[in-house]
């Protein structure tokens, strides 16, 4: 989910393993030549999800040993979660909703179009409801790591060959 730490942790994990790190949102931005916000503005969420799926297919062609930080919605559209599981070892970072909200409030919400311009109360409501609808997808990850704190060695042991 947004704020779980996919980008932050993914980068750290890739560094430890000596793997390439790819943040799917950044990869989409490079492919599309515009920011995620611009893509949402021009093509709506539907257009973004199509670009996201295309990027997912391209990224598995482009990289062999890589840690990919997806976006929070990636596994929840099309058959993306099946595609992800067919091509790699997926990890669900299962962070409580209240913690996600606290973290996200400290960031620039305009960078995440689904959260832009939300009040704190609306943000809380959105995170709780969205997490509930997405959980069925997230639970299909091969591994689940739960809690506010994480242990990078534990994560490393999950994916290390
Ligand atoms: N384990 C953590 N504990 C506390 N804050 C964290 C942790 N992981 C990430 N953050 C912070 O939470 C925010 C969202 O992290 P980010 O990696 O962008 O999440 P995601 O890519 O899953 O949306 C950032 O401000 C980041 O510094
Ligand atoms: O949860 C989502 O639907 C989204 C999460 C974002 O990525 P992060 O999870 O890295 O914020 C980004 O892909 C886009 O704003 C949509
Ligand atoms: Mg991210």
From TrEMBL:
Pathway listed: Metabolic intermediate biosynthesis; chorismate biosynthesis; chorismate from D-erythrose 4-phosphate and phosphoenolpyruvate: step 5/7
Q: Which domain of life is it from?
A: Bacteria
Any GO BP annotation? chorismate biosynthetic process
The compartments listed are: Cytoplasm
CDD domains linked? SK
Its recorded reaction(s) are: shikimate + ATP = 3-phosphoshikimate + ADP + H(+)
The protein's UniProt keywords, in alphabetical order, are: Amino-acid biosynthesis, Aromatic amino acid biosynthesis, ATP-binding, Cytoplasm, Kinase, Magnesium, Metal-binding, Nucleotide-binding, Transferase
InterPro entries registered for this protein in UniProt: P-loop_NTPase, Shikimate/glucono_kinase, Shikimate_kinase/TSH1
Cofactor annotation: Mg(2+)
Locate the residues binding substrate. Answer: 25, 49, 72, 134
- Please give the Pfam families that the UniProt record associates with this protein: SKI
User: In which residues is Mg(2+) bound?
Assistant: 7
**Residues annotated to bind ATP:** 3-8, 112
Do you know which HAMAP family this protein is assigned to?
A: Shikimate_kinase
Q: How does it assemble?
A: Monomer.
Q: Which family does it belong to?
A: Belongs to the shikimate kinase family.
Q: What is this protein called?
A: Shikimate kinase
Tell me which species this is from: Pontibacter ramchanderi
Task: Please name the taxonomic classification of the source.
Answer: Bacteria, Pseudomonadati, Bacteroidota, Cytophagia, Cytophagales
This protein's gene is called aroK
């Amino acid at each position: 989910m947004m704020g779980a730490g996919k980008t932050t942790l993914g980068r750290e994990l890739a560094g430890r393993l000596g793997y390439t790190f790819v943040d799917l949102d950044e990869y989409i931005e490079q492919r599309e030549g515009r920011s995620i916000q611009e893509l949402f503005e021009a093509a709506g969420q539907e257009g973004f999800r199509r670009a996201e799926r295309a990027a997912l297919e391209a990224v598995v062609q482009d990289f062999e040993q890589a840690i990919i930080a997806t976006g929070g919605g990636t596994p929840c559209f099309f058959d993306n979660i099946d595609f992800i599981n067919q091509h790699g070892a997926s990890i669900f970072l299962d962070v409580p909703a209240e913690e996600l909200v606290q973290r996200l409030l400290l960031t620039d919400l305009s960078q995440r179009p689904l959260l832009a311009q939300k009040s704190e109360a609306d943000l809380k409501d959105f995170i709780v409801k969205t997490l509930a609808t997405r959980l069925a997808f997230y639970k299909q990850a091969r591994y689940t790591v739960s809690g506010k704190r994480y242990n990078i060695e534990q994560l490393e042991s999950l994916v290390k060959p």
